[in-house]
Amino acid sequence: MPDLPALAAPTSAVTFAGAGPGAAGHLTLAAFQALTGADVVIHDRLVGDEVLALIPAHVVRIDVGKAAFGPSTAQSDINALLVAQAQAGRRVVRLKGGDCGIFGRLDEEIDALQAAGLTFVILPGLTAATVAAASIGQSLTRRGRNTGFRIVTGHDIDGFAEHEWRSMAATGEVAAIYMGKKSARFIQGRLMMHGADPETPATLVENVSRANQRILPATLATLPEAAQALEGPAVILYGLAPRAAAKSAQTLKEAQA
């Protein structure tokens, strides 16, 4: 195996790295090299075990996991920890599941570093939406179907999150819904209230890219019941069905025409 290409020596106090949704194969080369050169890795709960196993034994690992509606490390404590470790002169990697800039509170941590006069660099990672779509054999955009797609959250700091439901409910729209397990019935109601077809496909991908990944095909009408079957973290692909199921449905529709 050839040697990995060398990256420039780190010049920032903290490296923010996206770990991808779980599998080690989705970690970028830059993120891998940052992990192997770190003194301290401060990581989230959703970082995959395969990725954590790549961290050298001498590197200090600090788990600052958060769980929706469950025990969590306070964001203020994470901010203070980042600052303290960087000010101590350690090479710090802040490892976040998926892409660190998508629902990862990245800006809050950057603000804390900048307030302390510390520098940072961001290494993007694969987000769950793209990997989930690949796992069902679909693309997130398709000519003639949708010219864009949304990445939305099922809940925010105020509760279930509101969105621009009318446009999202239009035929052919695609959205990746993160943290939608608890809010599935709310999402269903909002979309149907704004004219969405109850038969619009939706696919729930649980534990994206991991050995225990599950793919649960559904429709908007059955979305809340499908979400109740989820046990691990999942992304909801609204507007997409697994490719085989989508082709079967299209064949049936053409036969009935």
TrEMBL record:
Gene3D superfamilies: Cobalt-precorrin-4 Transmethylase, Domain 1 (3.40.1010.10), Methyltransferase, Cobalt-precorrin-4 Transmethylase, Domain 2 (3.30.950.10). Residues 14-223 form the Tetrapyrrole methylase domain. Belongs to the precorrin methyltransferase family. GO terms for molecular function: uroporphyrin-III C-methyltransferase activity. CDD domains: SUMT. It comes from the Bacteria. It comes from Fuscibacter oryzae. GO terms for biological process: methylation; siroheme biosynthetic process. InterPro entries: 4pyrrol_Mease (IPR000878), 4pyrrol_Methylase_sf (IPR035996), 4pyrrole_Mease_sub1 (IPR014777), 4pyrrole_Mease_sub2 (IPR014776), CobA/CysG_C (IPR006366), Siro_Cobalamin_biosynth (IPR050161), Uropor_MeTrfase_CS (IPR003043). This is uroporphyrinogen-III C-methyltransferase. Keywords: Methyltransferase, Porphyrin biosynthesis, S-adenosyl-L-methionine, Transferase. Its EC number is 2.1.1.107. SUPFAM superfamilies: Tetrapyrrole methylase. Pathway: Porphyrin-containing compound metabolism; siroheme biosynthesis; precorrin-2 from uroporphyrinogen III: step 1/1.
